[in-house]
Amino acid sequence: MDRIDELRVWLRGALPGRDCELMPASADASFRRYFRATAGASTWIVMDAPPEHENCRPFVQVAGLLAEAGLNAPRVLAQDLERGFLLLTDLGNTTYLAALEKDRSLAPDLFADATEALIRWQLSSREDTLPPYDEALLRRELNLFPDWYVARHLDVQLSEAQRDALEKTFAAIVANNLAQPRVYVHRDYMPRNLMVTDPNPGILDFQDAVHGPITYDLASLYRDAFISWDEREVLDGTIRYWEQARHAGLPVNPDFGAFYRDVEWMGLQRHLKVLGIFARLNYRDGKRGYLEDTPRFLGYVRATANRYGELRPLIALLDELEQRKPQVGYTF
To answer: Do 163 and 180 belong to one domain?
Structure first.
C-alpha cells in the first residue's frame, strides 16, 4: 500500500461514515503535503508529514498555544503522530498573498488584523515552552547563505579575507538579535501563511515556532518573500505595531529609532537565511521556482546594509560576488 492509500484508509477511520473526496490543497517547501477532504458541504484539511522527514508534534503543540491565545489557527481533530497524519479544520482558500495580489487596497485592513493577532501571540509568551531562538540556531541559519547561496548557487569559494568579513558581519547581526527582548516567534509570519478568515487572520505554517527576538515576525510580515512594499508603507506599518505593542505592555524599545534598527537587523538575518534556503530547495530538494525570488531578498539585504556602517563589508562582498563595481569605500 503506497502512502496516499494509507492516508485514505486512516481518513475513513478519522471521519467514519463520510465518503470524502481528497484533492491537493497547497504546496509546501518542506516534505509535508496538504489535502482538502470534501464530503457534501463539509471540508477538512489533511496533513501528510512522512515521519522520516517531518515531526508532527511541534505542529500540534503550537496549534494549542495559538488557540490558547485566542487566535484562529487550524484545530487538530484527529492525529496519528507515528505515521504523520493530522486531520485539521479548514481555514479556506484565500491567503493574504492571493487577496493582496488581486487588490492591494485591502492591505491596511488585512495588516491591521495581522498586527493585532501578532501582539496577542506575543503577549501569550511563556518561558521554557518553545525551543529557544539561540545563538546556535541563528548562526546555523546564517551559514545557509555561504554554504548554499554562495558556494552552491554562485559556485564561489570565499577567500580568507571574505570569510573573515562575513564572520564579523554575522557576529554583529547575531549580537543585535540576541540583545532583543524575547517572545513567541511564529518564524514565517507572512502573507502566504495568513488566511483571510472570520475571525481574521487564519494562521498557518507555525510548526517551527520558537522563543526569540521580538522583531522577527514583524520583519517577516513587511519584508516578505513574495510581495514587496515601499519604504513608506513598511515604516508606517512598523510604527503602528510599535505603538500598539507599547500600549499592550510588550517589551519593545521605547525609542522608535532603536526599535526600527532592531527590526532591520533581524530582517537581515532572515534575508540571508532565506537566500540560502531558496538555493537549498532548488539544488537539494528539487523544488524549482524559489530562486526566482532571490533578487527581492538581495534588494532587502542591500537596502539594510547600505544604512549601517558596520555592514559595509557585506555590501563589498555582495559587489564582488555579483562582479559589481563597489558602491562603498570598502574593499577586501
So the answer is: yes
